[in-house]
Amino acid sequence: MGWSGLLRRLLYESRMRCCPNTNPKSREHDFHKLFKSLPEGETLIQDFSCALLRDILVQGRMYVSQNWFCFYANILGWETLLTIEVNKITAIKKEKTALVINNAIS
User: In whole angstroms, what is the distance from residue 52 CA to residue 93 CA?
Assistant: First the structure.
C-alpha cells in the first residue's frame, strides 16, 4: 500500500472527515491561496479538520496533495503554516492522544 492509501486508511480510522458541504473548487482555490510556494500544478486530494501538536494543540486544516502534506491554522490572527514534502516522510504511524484514544498520526 502506498503512502496515500495508508494515510487515507489512518484518517478514516481516526474519523477525520472533510466537510461534505464545501465546494471542491473552493477548497482547491484556498489550498493554492494559502500555500503560494507550492507548484501551480499541485492538485489537492483532500483536506481535513485536524490539530497540530506544537507547544500547544493548534486546531486547523490538513491539506493533502500528490506531493505535499500541508497544515494551516489561524487562531485570533496567529497563523500557523506547515508544509512537508511527501518524499521527506519516512514513516506514518497511528498514535494516541491523551494516551488512550487512537485518533492521531505521527
Answer: 15
